[in-house]
Amino acid sequence: MNPTIETILQHRSIRKFEDRPLSDEQIRTIVECAQAASTSSFIQAYSIIGVKDKEKKKKLAELAGNQSYVEHSGHFFVFCADLHRHEQIGEMEGTDVSGSLESMEKFMVAVIDASLAAQNASLAAESMGLGICYIGGIRNNMEQVTELLGIPSHAMPLFGLAVGYPAQQTDVKPRLPFEHVYQEDTYNTDETSYKEQLEDYNKTTSAYYHARTGGKRADTWSSQMANMLREPKRTGMKEFVEKQGLAKK
Amino acid sequence: MNPTIETILQHRSIRKFEDRPLSDEQIRTIVECAQAASTSSFIQAYSIIGVKDKEKKKKLAELAGNQSYVEHSGHFFVFCADLHRHEQIGEMEGTDVSGSLESMEKFMVAVIDASLAAQNASLAAESMGLGICYIGGIRNNMEQVTELLGIPSHAMPLFGLAVGYPAQQTDVKPRLPFEHVYQEDTYNTDETSYKEQLEDYNKTTSAYYHARTGGKRADTWSSQMANMLREPKRTGMKEFVEKQGLAKK
After folding, report:
1. Domain holding A112: CATH number?
2. Of B31, B69, B131, B227, which has the most beta carbons under 10 Å away?
């Protein structure tokens, strides 16, 4: 096992950080690593906003559903899908690019680009001994986050990334069975084996929670997921995305 | 600079591979690394299909726009956004999860999850001395790719990942200026400095192409982008995504 694979396999989310900011050099390395990721046809359709302003961090922590580790992170990055610069390029080059920018295809490209960059950033941070936690919670309040950070048309915040010196130890969570996530040549549409794999995984997660909570909790993954998915969340997302000029057609 | 950061910064896409398949052990390590990535609220909303069947690889190469390195890769992975298993979980748990599964929010979660996993897979492969290339081209023919791989409702292919032993040397491409991609506290909406950064980058890319092609080519990034974005591509994407039961509301 090489050091990169070791870093990857040791990942666990960290939600408590030391009161110690990242240095500008650390921030630069993390961002440069983000930028080194693959990008669809060289489009580079993302931006990263690093939040240092204490009031803004506090506000973002609230908007993300009172996640204090947003405020008390060593640095808080917001990853944005960003086709705004391509809108500007259209102007610079006198080319009408609006049809492309408003397409579902380019929205997907921007979300994928931003995510590949973010995962590079995460691994770079973790390889330096820092801890990370993705913050989807900023999508609870898209309008406010977008306004707070001054994000223009054809761009939108996707998720935050809290980074800092870990002040807690957490466990690596067991993932879905390999055979369930990875299939060869064709998707497994055999319902029996498919559901058996999920039942097996339920035993794994149940044992994991049982051990971690001293027997207080032993819920299965499928019950967790069913509870989480019962009520649709962030129901205004489609309207918001389209209002930003993305995924309209 | 540690080995993980070194791996990250050395990335360049490889489009020519030795005729040498990946071992099952390599494939397993790559997938396990993919699975170790963060996942929104533990939802694990993606699947990976590894294509070994020679006829299918050939067909996928055609469907991706005759990209021969899809066929002649050491292994070809297809990363899928996948909420199909959550549909099955809804059945198992007797819970109506359809509203969640059809939401734009959960579509974004699935695309982000799949992308984080793919970037882990890419870095794991690169750290082992393998080369990679993301293949967005499979989105040229979504219906056929989906049918060929038997991908069910609430799931869809997003991109391929060709992996193999490199049979070419390529350069690291210069990225957008750090200051353009990374901003502090607020998005840079000062049009003058914003466009100056793009002009600077045009000089960088122009010099890069000039050097690489012995003076035959010296196009700027903004002209490349304007040309690429002039005509919308993959215009049926929104209909396709919605037909799969995703991003409908």
Report:
1. 3.40.109.10
2. B131
